[in-house]
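Side project, low priority. Logging it here so it doesn't get lost.
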Amino acid sequence: MFQLPLAIPPHLKRSYRIARVFLYVFFIAGTSLFLVQTFFPTLTFSFNFRTPSSSKNSLLDPHSDKDIPATNGKITQNEMFITTASAIGEFSLADISFSLEKKSALPNTLEVTLKRSYRSFFLPTGVPLTNFPEESLYRVDDTYYALRDGTLYPFVSDNAYLSRYPDTFAIDESRDFLANHLVSEEWIGYRVGSLVSFADGVFLIVSETEMRPFGSPEILLALGYRFEDVRPASEEEIGIYKRGRIILIGTQHPDGTLLLDTDTNTYYLIEDNLKHPLESGDYRNFIRSKQTPIVVSSKASEEEAKCTFEPGLFGQSFSCQT
């Protein structure tokens, strides 16, 4: 037995047609928006100077051209404001805007310049490095030690020592050598900048006491690292480090990172917030044997996209596109 569809009462037909039109429009608009976001993705970055410590701020490390933090948003005349936005992939358009406080003086002209490279490659250039760090190294039985200020610091493993120095640098000593020196309870681990793995995680050694996990495999690759350079580590080796924050796409490479400018064939080693040219010699060859350099381009980093800010409908807002 079939039941015929109910007829729409005459006084509701007009409302039905309007509702059907709205439904079609909503469906078409939703589908169009989905397709646009899929094929033309948009990323939004912002910074609220009223809440500089908020986790919602996605623009990183705001500072002046004098390397003075500018998280309060105060920039003097003829001073530059520098910040970082990090994204994976290529983008064709940048839309930049900002709003001044009500009592802020209106600028005569404002220009924005965009450059692209790793944050570490934009660091100032330091003095060239040619030699290994000076260290008194010893081996007693199967343990390596470094003598610092009269105290012997043991390496947590052979692999940790070999990530820093060749085996031939250590002087063999007997156990009597230990009796004549104070032996620290602190361990020396892997060279800072090393990639290590334990269980199902990959970690970056960012200091002598801290390691940080990567947020995803894509982030590891986007930062220029390679899985082939990851060293398996033991629980004992990992145990000397505290676990830091997750590494995200905007994280700056730590000390110990090796860069290679393919335009000038220059190697750089990151140390103390500077990129030091690593001149040819045994030290450079050793570092290259332990870490594949992260490839950079000085020519590409000098390319600029510029636009001049124009005032918006409201006097304190400005924007431009490039």
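Brief comment: The CA atoms of residues 41 and 90 lie 10 Å apart.
Revisit when time allows.
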